[in-house]
Amino acid sequence: MSTKTGPQRYPSASRANWYQDDFGGDPMQVNVVVLHTTEGSTLPGYGGGSSAPNLTAVPDLAARKLKWYQHFDIETSSRALVNLSGGVETNTLNVCQVELVGTCDPKTHTKWKAAGRAHIYWPDAPDWALQAVARFLSWMHEEHGVPLSGPKAWPAYPTSYANGGGQRMSGAKWKAFKGVCGHMHVPENVHGDPGAIDFARILKYAKADLDVDDDTPGTTTPAVPAFPGRKYFVAGASNAYVLQLGKQLVKRGFGDHYKVGPSRNWGEADRLNVRDFQKSRKELRGDADGVPGPLTWRLLFS
User: What residue ranges in 114-252 does DSSP mark as E strands?
Assistant: First the structure.
């Protein structure tokens, strides 16, 4: 059974509709975010939580912001995906799920607009809404190491339904996937949401929020290894990322505080070496605390 690490609550998210106490869920080390759209304009009831995601983002159109509701811990399996017997795991395969209240269906959008029903049509979402989704993804990248990358194909609904756009992953690709995808990309699921959401713009905003490069979204391996998340560099941490960081520090000439060289165990020598590196870069001098974040990681491995 996986152990949950790092912050489990998205800052400022309401727990007014908390379902984990009723439905439990499995702990897991999250490395994937799946985006859904609700095809409604208000917070769903989710059958009392039986089909709930980890979080729901409800637009406050007057205030131009998203109000977040959290239903399960970040690293506890939720219940919004179909999971067929005998196939691949979906809800429990290291996935944090987010429902975006609104629609991706152009017919629904036209009908609601004609009726004067306020809503967000996510393929043409306002910038403030996309920026709010991006801030969540940048937080997931920084705190849980979810890569800011994903599939290239985000076909419009209804083409996306039942894999009409050929976008759905095979079981093998799904099991190997890390990053951000849509409901329409998950195997064993026929839904086509979130349709043609502007994924490239969301990634651009998320990377700008963290001051990391804005590469073209895709699934190719980047030249710089993905930042695993701050949770791997805290007191008592022992993992391969600490060793990888230490070796790179030595390679770049910032290993003076090691007595016998880097190891898997995060310690004061690692922090001091990271701080020395941060002091050497003008981009990092104002925050030279010795704790690696996405920008420190990128500059160190560039």
Answer: 179-182
